[in-house]
Design a protein that fits this description.
By secondary structure, the chain is mainly α. It has eleven helices and no strands. It has one domain.
Length: about 350
């Protein structure tokens, strides 16, 4: 399936997926309606927290960390819903289980890719520390070393992480599974599938934004259509328009990195590079001192922001992994250990390795 890389066109067009979940004339018991409404209202509130704040772009590390916190809360909430539904795993359709396990492996891969990128960006801080150390002196030798470190940082930041590039393929595969199978004779099953659909929509959306932020390219933004039947549809659409719009503005302005804290450091690095090239005959001494101070502050904020983001990614990884393990454990207890389950155990060991 071809996927146009244009914000105005979604990767896929699947109409209203709930035409298969809620057949005409089939209603849910009041208790299940209350459970579903409560979940979707919570999902709506979490989506509202993703709206960009004044003066703080969507591609700031603080926003990305907050987005991960919201995503973790949503995944935790759906676990609570599953418990409240009291739907035994033995009643789950085999296709539901396969889709869940396949998607969880893909999400673990995405988390690993994001972690590798955060680690790579943190490694770039070594160049910045060398710059600050060498600019303690105004000798020609130290200026030369500082210039080399500045060049090293820019080359490091602009290099590509192949794992991030692969994320877009994985996300495309997750989008392909958003269309849900027909649910027959199971009111609880319809509630579960609808709730999990909402979680998957938000998960793909946020992960795509992260991948775009790390790849410094807005060409692979997705525009996912939210079914009107969902209580969270309006909030999802509004947030998606705001976030994707902000990202397009950031990249259309010609910024190198996209991520706010990285861009701040890059701006100072450019300024310092120009000043350092003047060597010992530098005339803008105050500008040099000011830039050195700014670099120390901005690099510190970058390091702190990346540390918080790394913890958030690890937290999400653990939520996905424990949810997957819990399902596999219930299957094992229920003596429903199929070849599929054994294969997924093997896949999990490969991913976590």
């Amino acid at each position: 399936m071809s996927r146009p890389q244009n914000l105005r066109k979604p990767f896929i067009s699947f109409g209203n997926p709930f035409r298969m979940i809620s057949p005409k004339g089939l209603s849910l018991p009041p208790k299940l309606v209350a459970l579903l409404d409560s979940f979707e209202e919570t999902l709506t509130e979490k989506l509202k927290t993703l709206k960009p704040r004044d003066g703080d772009g969507v591609l700031s590390l603080s926003w990305m960390t907050s987005a991960l916190e919201a995503l973790c809360a949503i995944h935790t909430e759906v676990k609570s819903l599953i418990a409240a539904l009291e739907l035994p795993v033995s009643d789950w359709d085999g296709k539901w289980i396969d889709v869940y396990l396949d998607n969880s492996v893909k999400l673990l891969d995405v988390c690993i890719a994001f972690s590798s990128e955060v680690s790579r960006l943190n490694q770039g801080n070594l160049f910045l520390q060398c710059v600050l150390h060498n600019l303690d002196s105004t000798s020609a030798v130290q200026f030369t070393k500082a210039q080399s470190s500045l060049d090293g940082w820019r080359q490091h930041v602009s290099s590509k992480n192949l794992r991030i590039e692969k994320c877009f393929t994985i996300l495309g595969q997750l989008i392909d599974t958003l269309d849900l199978p027909r649910i027959k004779n199971s009111s609880k099953g319809r509630v579960l599938m609808r709730a999990m659909y909402g979680v998957r929509m938000v998960t793909v959306f946020i992960c795509n934004v992260f991948a775009v932020a790390f790849s410094s390219s807005s060409q692979k933004l997705v525009d996912l259509p939210a079914p009107e039947a969902c209580l969270w549809a309006e909030a999802f659409t509004e947030v998606q328009v705001l976030v994707n719009g902000d990202i397009q503005k950031i990249h259309s302005s010609g910024k190198v990195t996209g991520v706010k804290e990285l861009e701040a450091v890059d701006t100072i690095v450019k300024r310092l590079h120009t000043l350092v090239q003047q060597g010992e005959d530098i005339v803008e001494v105050e500008a040099l001192r000011s830039s050195i101070k700014d670099l120390g502050k901005s690099s510190g904020e970058l390091t702190q922001g990346l540390d918080f983001l790394a913890r958030g990614i690890d937290g999400f990884f653990q939520i996905v992994l424990t949810g997957r393990d819990a399902l596999l454990g219930k299957l094992r207890v229920g003596n429903d250990v199929s070849n599929t389950m054994q294969q997924h155990n093997h896949v999990k060991r490969q991913v976590v390795r």
